[in-house]
Amino acid sequence: MSTLEIIILALLQGLTEFLPISSSAHLILPSQIFGWQDQGLAFDVAVHVGTLLAVIMYFRKEVGAMAVAWLGTVGVGPEKGKQSFDGKLAWWILFATIPAGLFGLLGKDFIEEHLRSALVIAATTLLFGFLLGFADIKAGKRATHKPMEKLGFKGAMLIGLAQAIALIPGTSRSGITMTIGLMLGLSRASAARFSFLLSIPAITMAGSYLTLKLVLSAEGVDWFAMGLGSLIAFVSAYACIHYFLILLEKLGMMPFVIYRLILGVGLFWYILA
């Protein structure tokens, strides 16, 4: 890959991983539209590491509190035997990650062969864009919002099931999890926070799978591309999370809904032209 391709693809990964607009779609489209070669497993691993570090660093206080509380629930550490919401939240997130793991394991070959096309991305971009808009409008009209503590195990699993659907390109992992969170009564901020925390084990699983494939393959490693890609993905993802949360409070999801609708229509025009 050229340096320009490295920069563009790493920026796309960092900026779209946590926005409700589908990172997988934005990484697939350049190769289909511009004829770029596949970036390779090593680069995929690098940008996943970058985005994972960004979300962990941004939510480091929450992640630390959840880790200590979770250890306490299994009888380890300073909070041994204590029951707290942080410990409960950690369990919710772990269990809610299972559907995506199972769906990815069982359906990855089918998705790779049949669903990584511009037509599928166009359709899912529009469909889940409309759903996000519907959920955001309902949330905006709601007088009160359910606190995250009241989400419950069932609600967390529903969001986890939605995350599994996001393996289909164009759906957007963050988009569909925030959509379900909003439909379950969470505020925009709470839906986004749960989605971001849920992304940590999801990105870890994806990165681990790609790393295993890389180790088992004979693919060469371009250390410059990996290093630059990881750094750009980290910086852009960290900035994206920060400014997204600010924008969310002021404008809601509508800017991203409009973007998805424009992108989906544009893709259909490109395909059918």
From TrEMBL:
Taxonomy of the source species: Bacteria, Pseudomonadati, Pseudomonadota, Gammaproteobacteria, Alteromonadales
Among its keywords, does the record have Cell membrane?
Answer: yes
**Membrane-crossing residues?**
40-59, 89-106, 118-139, 151-171, 191-212, 224-246, 252-272
UniProt-annotated location(s): Cell membrane
What more is known? Bacitracin is thought to be involved in the inhibition of peptidoglycan synthesis by sequestering undecaprenyl diphosphate, thereby reducing the pool of lipid carrier available.
This enzyme's EC code(s): 3.6.1.27
Which EC class heads this enzyme's classification?
Answer: hydrolase
Reactions it catalyzes: di-trans,octa-cis-undecaprenyl diphosphate + H2O = di-trans,octa-cis-undecaprenyl phosphate + phosphate + H(+)
Q: Which GO terms describe its molecular function?
A: undecaprenyl-diphosphatase activity
PANTHER family in UniProt: UNDECAPRENYL-DIPHOSPHATASE
What InterPro entries has UniProt attached to this entry?
UppP
Please report which protein family the annotation says this sequence is part of: Belongs to the UppP family.
Checking NCBIfam families in the record gives:
PRK00281.2-4 (NF001393), undec_PP_bacA (TIGR00753)
Q: What is this protein called?
A: Undecaprenyl-diphosphatase
Q: Which HAMAP family match?
A: Undec_diphosphatase
Q: Which organism is it from?
A: Colwellia marinimaniae
Q: How is it placed in the membrane, per its record?
A: Multi-pass membrane protein
**Alphabetized UniProt keyword annotations:** Antibiotic resistance, Cell membrane, Cell shape, Cell wall biogenesis/degradation, Hydrolase, Membrane, Peptidoglycan synthesis, Transmembrane, Transmembrane helix
Function as written in the Swiss-Prot or TrEMBL entry: Catalyzes the dephosphorylation of undecaprenyl diphosphate (UPP). Confers resistance to bacitracin.
